[in-house]
């Protein structure tokens, strides 16, 4: 009888462990703590040795371990091994190239802070980013000179008078001094053909005096996407890049044999930290693509023998939108790594393209919290990581708290004034605690914006937490799921509408090529009214009337609540996105249903009685003005 009881207890323990992943969570926590403690010990040793705690130390380790391995392949097909690739601010305005790779690691080595400027910017946004950086030198390529010409000499002289620009050219030369002067005159900037420069160090390597660099010192300025206004520069300290490189081998995700195909811009955090630093720390090869093309993506991975690639969710969606091909599985890709892969296409992508491992991570450029999901099966598919019982008990520096959608702030207990942690399957705002030893990542020269990201007196007087800006929830098994961006969720008819969830369902309709969902204020109506900007597929354009009739029942059949179905649809040829393929909703919200702002786009309104969409006409507007329209 005792044997049976013991067996039952053992089986019960195994079931509980399997359901709640207690053992795996504990192992992950121990492994992470060991790796981080090792990183801090390394920083202490380097500080004691010579005070040179540069992120370049991680790269130097790889150079010493894998000197003859290919480090980087340029978009033109040029290759360099690690051996060959061996506090002012310099602004970098370059497209994806090997030159960006070398310039960034050179800056890490010397202690110069690199301000990574989005090369798609023009006008006021470009001036803003350059001025915020405080850079005294600008490195750009000839293809990015035109925006300065468009601004005009006087504007450049007035606004950017403290910056000395240099136009870098990796393909021309060597040229004579007269040729260089002539081209400089033509460009209006100092022209520097790289082939005229001596790349070798002009002094013995051993005699180089290392600058004093702390792990907390700025390494790079990475700008936010600018989805809600002008981009802000987030400070990434040397510890972030050093950690990404130094801890990479211990994660057993990337290996020296890997060849990572990167279409993400190298001025962005995903391309900069995940692609460059992580693969360099693993001793693998980074294959830099000029830009993303859904049509040629798989064929390029095949041609270049890529074993992994980096993504944001929209990239996967674009790949899934391409016509199926017999060559979809004809490649050597073993892993896709990135963030934002939607749950509804997670397994479909894995099956269609035969990429067995998906390494989804959750983080923010300026954030204090991260989560990872190394996924190889349907278990955990669509999740961004784990937030299990062990994590919540042992690592209380991450929390999900109740959120008040009416104020956009965390909900606080009226009696205590403190925040309240959510329960399982309850969406809330994710925050990360800032401890005295935390290496913070504030916005550069923007104290007010940095302060807005902080929450104080959260669970006790004096504590400080960082707002990641996202609504998340964990299920009963501890899996962490993304719900929406804070501010994207809106209230309508007393209910909270998660735009990300509605977007997911509308995007699954065969007539829809692209969609962005948001809430807009309408006079005489409480809350915000749901609206969707939609780009129709060729099929959708051909069957437009059918689309208008079937979208409502289609969404209801998929379980979308009646109140969450958009009341307005704006038909567009293209939805403007950021460089990381995020929809720029701020302008869409401002445009609303104003005729003078929508550039002739067709507007539809939902007839809530007939359950069909029809053209928004003046009679509908008049009813809304009178507060009589049934929305």
From TrEMBL:
Swiss-Prot/TrEMBL GO biological process terms: long-chain fatty acid import into cell
Keywords: ATP-binding, Ligase, Nucleotide-binding, Signal
Protein name per Swiss-Prot or TrEMBL: AMP-dependent synthetase/ligase domain-containing protein
Organism this protein belongs to: Actinomortierella ambigua
Signal peptide range in chain numbering: 1-18
Organism superkingdom: Eukaryota
GO molecular function, one term: long-chain fatty acid-CoA ligase activity
Family: Belongs to the ATP-dependent AMP-binding enzyme family.
Stretches assigned to the AMP-dependent synthetase/ligase domain: 87-409
Domain (AMP-binding enzyme C-terminal): residue spans on this chain: 506-582
InterPro entries linked to this entry: AMP-bd_C (IPR025110), AMP-bd_C_sf (IPR045851), AMP-binding_CS (IPR020845), AMP-dep_synth/lig_dom (IPR000873), ANL_N_sf (IPR042099)
Signal as UniProt keyword: yes
A cellular-component GO term for this protein: lipid droplet
Gene3D superfamilies the record matches: 3.30.300.30, N-terminal domain of ligase-like
